[in-house]
Design goal:
Blueprint lengths: L9 E5 L11 E7 L2 E11 L9 E9 L23
């Protein structure tokens, strides 16, 4: 059996918003020519124009490498930084 190739493919899944209504309704990933991205999607309703009143999916994309790793949320301190308040 050959390995699955997810190049130029992606998926989004329903997101648990918890108690934060600003969290995306959907979260997922996308691979474009081998570069991986995070996807966020919100269900919205058009307010004006030809599609007023129709629901649509508003999306945001972020390169996976741009998001800091969760296991080390703080950047390392630079010992030569003269801007420290102490």
């Amino acid at each position: 059996m050959s390995e699955y190739d997810d190049t130029n493919r992606g998926a989004m899944f329903k997101n648990d918003k918890g108690d934060n209504p600003k969290r995306p309704d959907y979260r997922g990933f996308l691979n474009v020519n081998g570069t991986e991205f995070w996807l966020s999607g919100w269900v919205r309703e058009a307010q004006q124009g030809k599609h007023a009143g129709e629901k649509f999916l508003s999306v945001a994309i972020e390169a996976k490498e741009d998001r800091p790793k969760q296991d080390n949320p703080l950047p390392p301190l630079d010992s030569d930084d003269d801007n420290l308040p102490f």
